[in-house]
Amino acid sequence: MSTAPELPLWAALVVSALMVIGAAIALIGSVGLIRLNSFYARVHAPTLGATLGVGSLLIGSMICFSVLQSRPVVHEVLIALFVTITTPITLVLLARASLHRDRVEGNPEVPKSDHASLDRHDG
């Protein structure tokens, strides 16, 4: 059975702090999903929690494996790039789809489309 490699104390403290911070931010985003009252408010909390929480976890992972391997490990940069790009795009697509659905159903709490006002003034 292999034993876990040992990190220097300074690295273990930094990595531990980043892991706890990342997990706490992700937890706050998850709680926001439950606590907020409308879909449009709910959709922001998990996306921010995912981006910031994963960022902290990835920085901790980079430090841990860079110290253990005595060379810079940057695989996590690709993961951070993909999360940073895809999370906001997913947020926008979900919000637009919900907004379209609510407008088609005639939900009075949703503002009218800007395209309708533009069509009136072009004529």
From TrEMBL:
Annotated spans, Disordered: 102-123
Pfam families found in the cross-reference section: PhaG_MnhG_YufB
Membrane-traversing stretches: 12-36, 48-68, 74-95
Record flagged with keyword Repressor: no
Transmembrane helix among keywords: yes
GO molecular function, one term: sodium:proton antiporter activity
Domain of life: Bacteria
Keywords attached to this entry: Membrane, Transmembrane, Transmembrane helix
PANTHER family with a match to the protein in the record: ANTIPORTER SUBUNIT MNHG2-RELATED (PTHR34703:SF1)
Record's protein name: Potassium:proton antiporter
Lineage of origin: Bacteria, Pseudomonadati, Pseudomonadota, Alphaproteobacteria, Hyphomicrobiales
